[in-house]
Structure formats: C-alpha cells, structure tokens
Design a protein that fits this description.
The complex is a heterodimer of chains A (71) and B (211). Chain A is mostly helical. Helices cover 48% and strands 11% of the residues of chain A. Chain A has a two-stranded antiparallel sheet with strand order 1-2. Chain A is extended and about 40 Å long. Chain B is α+β, with helices and mostly antiparallel strands. Chain B has a single domain, classed as Aminopeptidase. The longest helix of chain B has 24 residues. Classes of the chains: A mainly alpha (71), B alpha+beta (211). Chains A and B meet through helix 2 of A and helix 3 of B.
C-alpha cells in the first residue's frame, strides 16, 4: 500500500555523507529510509515546539536533564 | 490527502464466506463519522448488556473511553503517525494509529532499533466476540497487524512492530500474531508490552495472519 514517490538529488559534503553512512549502518536503514525517518522526527519535534512543548535530554543515572534548544 | 486503498477480505461469520473489503492508509472524516454514529451507540448498548448481566466494570471493554476524533485531530498531517482503517459493507470495521518515530525495540536482540509502534487499534463493537456473539466479521485485527508489518518493512524497519495490549487482546497478540510478551509495563498502566521481531513478522505473514 505504498504511495507514489518523487525523486530528488541531495548534495552532501564528505563529512555529511560519512555521518549518513555511519548512521545507516548503525540503524540498519538505507539512506532513503534514514532521511525519511529524520524528516518524520524533525516534523514531530517542530510541531511540538510550536505548540509550546520543550525538548529535553535526560540522563537517569546522573539525574541530569538538559533542555535542547532548537533554532 | 492521498488515500491508498488496498483490497482485502473479511470473514463474514453469518454467511461463512469471505467478503471483499478495503484497507485504507488513512482515517478520514467518513471513518470518524462512523465511529461517532455507528460504533459508539453499539458500544454503549453492549456495555449496558454487560452491566445488566452483572459483569464487573473491570471486564468492560477498556477502549470504551477512546475518542478517535480527538486522536485523529492530534495526529493529523503528521508523517510519523499514520492511520489505517478497514471498510466493509459501507461501514468502518476497524481503525489503527501507528507511531513510526518515538519508540524503539526492547527485545534483547533488537534493542534500540526502529519499529512501528501500534498506538491504538480497535475493532467495530459488532466485530468483538466479547460484546457480540457471534461477531459480524472476523480478520480485522490480523489485517491491521499485517498493515503495521508492511509499514515497518516499507520504512526499512524489517517488520518490527510493538504495542501495549489491552487485557482482552493479550491472547491475540501472543498466539495469533506470535509476538513476544515482555510483560506488564509499569510505565504504561501495567499493560503488557508485546513486540514482533523480523523473523516473527515473516512467520505471521507466511501463515496469512491466521491462528
């Protein structure tokens, strides 16, 4: 039941491509799948922030909590 | 919004035959209107029967407080929270909301990997054998689980899915779906958490989603 898709060319620096490939290996995802997942996550974060929610990173062991500032 | 419709079949209990149905990769206004005008009155009548029969409140359907209109509104337009529904006989027979972003696998061999988390899945009241005996259609839950697995594969998540089960559905996820039961989740109303590995997903798809 997959929807039709559009193709685009993406220009990345060596460093960006290196990180993309590293993440793909780690997450066992193709480049397309990883970037689509990143888009879904980015939209979610943006929507929640626009509603006034805050994003935090929490370290349960160290009892530390830091707000992530999004630009 | 583009809605993809896929042909599926439901088992009509009264006729003993399969009936053509549609699987939609969306929850539209039509499904929400069906929930309000068709599901809700039937659910109330079923609960009234349970109440009058002296069935404890704890045994009533736990999904009775779910407000699909509110849920759909909260997730509308979000890429990471797709909805699905099944139409048969002109009426919505089941709905599901998934989350492809915020959850990760918990099973040891899969820890931290992406999965499709089934946030909410519900059958129309007349398809639930604990409320209507016999139910009208069978197979809705399996079709929606298959849709979740296919979505997982489409996202490169290899068929991994997870969900918290309402008590009435524990047997379905453990036995029919063959998911791993990771036990009650203290962080989620003590509902049992079930997860499906890529291998379990393939096994479920191979047997056609049947018990």
């Amino acid at each position: 039941m997959s929807q039709s898709k559009k193709t685009m060319t993406l220009n990345l620096t060596d460093a960006e491509m290196s990180i993309l490939e590293e993440l793909c290996t780690k997450k066992e995802l193709s480049k397309t799948a990883l970037l689509r997942q990143a888009l879904r996550l980015y939209q979610l974060v943006e929507t929640r922030l626009e509603k006034g929610d805050k994003l935090f990173f929490e370290d349960e062991e160290k009892k530390e909590r830091a707000e992530v500032m999004m630009l | 919004m583009t809605v993809t419709v896929s042909p599926v079949f439901l088992f009509n209990v009264a006729t003993g035959k399969e009936e053509p149905a549609d699987l939609l990769d969306a929850i539209t206004e039509k499904q929400l209107a069906d929930w309000e005008a068709e599901w809700t009155p039937e659910l109330f009548k079923a609960m009234q029967r349970l109440h009058r029969a002296g069935v404890e409140r704890a045994q009533w359907p736990q999904s009775r407080h779910w407000d699909w209109r509110r849920k759909a509104a909260a997730f509308q337009g979000m890429l990471g929270t797709p909805g699905f529904s099944i139409m048969c006989g002109g009426v919505t027979q089941g709905m599901m909301l998934a989350d492809t972003v915020t959850k990760r696998c918990r099973i040891g061999s899969q820890t931290g990997k992406n999965l499709v988390y089934v946030s909410f899945v519900e059958n129309a009241p007349w398809n639930r054998k604990e409320l209507f005996d016999p139910p009208r259609y069978r197979g809705i839950g399996s079709i929606l689980m298959r849709a979740a697995i296919e979505l997982s594969k489409e996202h490169d998540f290899k068929g991994r899915i997870g969900l918290h089960s309402l008590p009435q559905a524990n047997g379905f996820y453990a036995n029919t779906c063959g998911m791993t039961d990771l036990g009650p989740d203290a962080n989620y109303q003590n509902l049992r958490y079930f997860e499906m590995t890529p291998e379990q997903a393939e096994a479920f798809l191979e047997k056609g989603g049947k018990a």
